[in-house]
């Protein structure tokens, strides 16, 4: 039989997982408790309490839930991303979508779990290259994420040299400004002309409504559905599909295709779907 202290600990941890799932859709099974504790450690230190138990008591019993929740969400989201991640999707846009876009209207792209901005800026570089070959091509990019920390990082658009590894050199030369941090580390910033094309905002995909235009030409919803349960995956895909214009496209992560069963969407390439024209 577990001691009352351990049982109380369990209860608090279960409460933490439940609230994170309720607010973000992210599933946190019990076997992830070491990961959860590891990720919360920095926050526990910053707050100045001795351990996770005291921290969770402070959060749930002493009324600090509202102020701590954004920090908890920040540390418990997985923000791994890269420039040109799943590169074939950018190739598909370049080859099959951009050439068919009518010159009469601006191309609208949404990175709907943008993390620190690499996906949105990769799209920006792809569109800037297309615009060089097609003068007059106009585009705008929206990036949204639930984590305020990554949204801030995305807006800053500053990356380490190692993070640039997948960006072709010619694009690095055109679209990145090189510099140094105060401690001499080599850093690169996306050039102003591309930054001007991208707007980042904090947004929860599990919310009932998205304050976003419903005429997106392309939405990337990649590598975020895996964190949700099946019902939430379906709900999010359906909500997102409402924002794809007829004839527009939705891309998901390579392991996420099976989740897309919305009847309005037809698969047209690996992890890529087209919305019916009507
Ligand atoms: C693994 S990253 C994927 C980034 C990028 N789409 C890619 O494929 O490289 C997943 C992102 O989803 C965000 N996320 C998790 N739950 C979310 C939610 N409910 N609403 C919006 N974003 C969420 C996380 O904060 C994280 O930045």
Q: What does it look like?
A:
By secondary structure, the protein is of the alpha/beta class. The protein has two domains: 4-76, Chemotaxis receptor methyltransferase CheR, N-terminal domain (Chemotaxis Receptor Methyltransferase Cher, domain 1), CATH 1.10.155; 88-275, Rossmann fold (3-Layer(aba) Sandwich). It is built from ten helices and ten strands. The chain has helices at residues 4-24, 33-47, 52-61, 65-76, 88-97, 118-133, 148-156, 169-175, 192-195, 230-241; strands at residues 107-111, 139-145, 158-160, 176-180, 186-190, 198-202, 216-221, 244-252, 265-269, 272-275. Strands 6-2-1-7-8-10-9 form a seven-stranded mixed β-sheet, with helices on both faces. Strands 3-5-4 form a three-stranded antiparallel β-sheet. The protein is globular. The chain starts with a helix and ends with a strand. The model has no long low-confidence stretch (mean pLDDT 95). S-adenosylmethionine binds at residues 24-26, 77-81, 85, 113, 115, 119, 145-147, 150, 204-206, 222-224, 227, 253. S-adenosylmethionine (SAM) binds at residues 24-26, 77-81, 85, 113, 115, 119, 145-147, 150, 204-206, 222-224, 227, 253.
Notable characteristics:
278 residues, alpha/beta, Chemotaxis Receptor Methyltransferase Cher, domain 1, Rossmann fold, 2 domains, seven-stranded mixed beta sheet, three-stranded antiparallel beta sheet, 10 helices, 10 strands, 19% strand, globular, binds S-adenosylmethionine
């Amino acid at each position: 039989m577990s001691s009352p202290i351990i049982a109380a600990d369990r209860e608090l941890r279960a409460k933490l997982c439940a609230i994170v799932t309720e607010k973000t859709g992210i599933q946190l099974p019990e076997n992830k408790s070491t990961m959860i504790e590891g990720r919360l450690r920095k926050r526990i230190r910053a707050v100045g309490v001795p351990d996770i138990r005291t921290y969770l008591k402070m959060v749930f019993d002493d009324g600090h839930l509202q102020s701590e929740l954004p920090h908890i969400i920040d540390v418990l989201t997985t923000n791994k991303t890269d420039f040109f991640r799943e590169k074939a999707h950018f190739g598909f846009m370049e080859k099959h979508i951009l050439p068919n876009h009518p010159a009469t209207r601006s191309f609208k792209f949404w990175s709907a779990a943008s993390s620190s901005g690499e996906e949105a800026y990769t799209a920006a570089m792809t569109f800037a290259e297309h615009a060089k070959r097609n003068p007059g091509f106009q585009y705008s990019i929206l990036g949204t994420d639930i984590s305020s920390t990554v949204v801030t990082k995305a807006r800053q658009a500053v990356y380490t040299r190692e993070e640039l590894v997948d960006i072709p050199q010619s694009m690095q030369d055109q679209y990145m400004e090189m510099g140094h941090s105060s401690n001499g580390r080599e850093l690169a910033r996306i050039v102003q002309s591309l930054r001007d094309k991208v707007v980042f905002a904090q947004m929860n995909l599990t919310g009932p409504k998205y304050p976003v235009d419903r005429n997106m030409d392309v939405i990337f919803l990649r590598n975020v559905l895996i964190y949700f349960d099946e019902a939430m995956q379906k709900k999010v895909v359906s909500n997102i599909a409402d924002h794809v214009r007829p004839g527009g496209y939705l891309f998901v992560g390579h392991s996420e295709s099976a989740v897309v069963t919305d009847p309005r969407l037809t698969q047209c390439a690996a992890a890529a779907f087209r919305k019916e024209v009507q």
